Fold this protein.
Amino acid sequence: MLLVLGDSLSAEYGLARGTGWVALLQKQLLAEKNPTKIVNASISGDTTSGGRSRLPALLKNHQPTVVVIELGSNDALRGLPLTMTEDNLTAMTQAAQQAGAKVVLVGMQMPPNYGADYGNRFSSLFEKAAKAQKAALVPFMLKGVADQKDVLKLFQADRIHPTAEAHPTILANILPTLKPLLK
């Protein structure tokens, strides 16, 4: 069983149901006759603090073998301390591992208007947490989406949430790290 603990980027915000990367993953696994069940426990607007508080009940109720943690963007957008985000990612990773699950941390980057120093420290905290806990890491969820020349083409009008057309690329970013853990 695979548990996805994420924010709007995994909760299909602004998309037709079934078009986000988590739903695309489930369809692909079914097509490959992989019986892995997915529980998408993503909530739009969620922070690492919210995920950390929800995770114990999710682990108990679903007993996942793999947990994908896609949280942190809303922490940064709200200007929360990076140390808090890193502590929460670490605590969630440890809790999932103690429950017997393998963990994939999904990294993000901030737009350049946050400043180079903040952006670098934010994106590196995912790598730091993953390395310290020996968890798998997807370095940048939106690679090939947010770093395109015509970046607005793959984003909804809010310029924050990817369109349905971007979600196959998001899945392609996550799959190489996730798939070996689903065997």
About this structure: The beta strands are 2-6, 38-40, 66-70, 102-106, 136-138. The chain has a mean pLDDT of 95. The domain at 2-172 is CATH 3.40.50.1110 (Rossmann fold).
